[in-house]
Description:
The protein has helices at 10-21, 42-53, 60-68, 77-84, 88-104, 141-149. It is mostly helical. The two termini are 29 Å apart. The chain is globular, with a radius of gyration of 15 Å. The protein contains six helices and no strands.
Amino acid sequence: MxxxxxxxxxxxxxxxxxxxxxxxxxxxxxxELYDGNGRACLLGAxxxxxxxxxxxxxxxxxxxxxxxxxxxxxxxxxxFNDCFCSGIEELRDTIRFAHALAAIYPPDGLPRPPAKPAxxxxxxxxxxxxxxxLELPSGSxxxxxxxxxx
Length: 150
């Protein structure tokens, strides 16, 4: 049976759609939720995407905050978007990291952020870098792949 995308958790669907939303760098804005011209900040895009997909119960916020805290000590998505985010590449990498975390960890089992967040460095590939230091749950599909290909 082909994969139809419906069996994904609401959180993974939402984070995946956020990645798609910000593929075009002209969709990101700072200082307002929406600018009326199709651009949104991370929080605005999160709200818009929830409505677009009809998702009410998701856990995207804890995954996004954990991904943000990998590089910053900021307390909100809004502050990250408007004050700490260095640009569209960091925004995209943060959402990709949150998506990868959501694929592996339950929201109440996220690994702790680093005590001293490392400054952001742009990734060299369009994939999530920086997951190697996280301990994978032993029965997770990601851990099984790591055993096969790691």
